[in-house]
């Protein structure tokens, strides 16, 4: 257990193959997640010349990204960066665009070897899916840094469109209303009508190809989704349940997002 974790962790346990770490504060959660990702990057770069990381764009990732981008020990010039989803049809400069969100918080802050954006303004949606899928084939994913939606989605794989056996790597999806409402709850949009109805998303099999998955999920608004992720049957009704089948996957929670969990699963300090 690291120094950070020893002083801030509220509990930890495993659910099937998924390791769960619970922290007293979301800021400490983000710091520990960034520390763990940095350690894995160092380990991977001892074995290969460059690595590929996929990032999620959401307020839940802010604490992690702040710490991660500030880590001067990371060899950024050996990392190719990707993101896992993007709205379709937003203005190119819209701050809600996931590429813009990530550019502000990390893509534009550190010297990655390359950054690959999904084009939410693409005229031909099928061609854009194929283009990005080709990049993922060229740069096989090593690490995915993600969150979980209020409806249990990972990336934009909402329950109605999630497919654990999806043959596609990238696809266009219609966003479930619960997913769109979350964007309002997160303060990204003022009203539901402003939230785009369609988006590009990496599919669940594309994400699960990663060797390592780090999932950061703070706040009380995610408590129900966390509960279902850990205790529901593993299926597409709660897409995030698939994380319990993944070796080298860690779920990071704060006390608020862990508030519905069975307390006997983890120790309290």
Distance between the termini: 14 Å
| Radius of gyration, whole Å | 17 Å
Stretches with pLDDT under 50, minimum 5 residues: 1-6
* Helical content band: 25-40%
Describe this structure in words.
The chain is of the alpha/beta class. Helix content is 30%, strand content 20%. The chain is built from 8 helices and 11 strands. The chain has an 8-stranded mixed β-sheet with strand order 1-2-11-10-7-3-4-6. Strand 3, helix 3 and strand 4 form a beta-alpha-beta unit. It is globular and about 50 Å long. The N terminus is likely disordered.
Report a brief summary of the structure:
The chain is α/β, with parallel strands linked by helices and 269 residues long. It is 30% helix and 20% strand. Helix 2 (26-45) packs across helix 3 (62-69).
Give the secondary structure arrangement, pairings included.
Elements (H helix, E strand, L loop, with lengths): L2 H6 E7 L2 E6 L2 H20 L5 E5 L6 H8 L9 E5 L1 E3 L10 H10 L6 E3 L8 H14 L4 E4 L23 E5 L2 H9 L12 E5 L1 H5 L3 E6 L5 H9 L17 E6 L15
Parallel strand pairs: 2-11, 3-4, 3-7, 4-6, 7-10, 10-11
Antiparallel strand pairs: 1-2, 5-9, 8-9
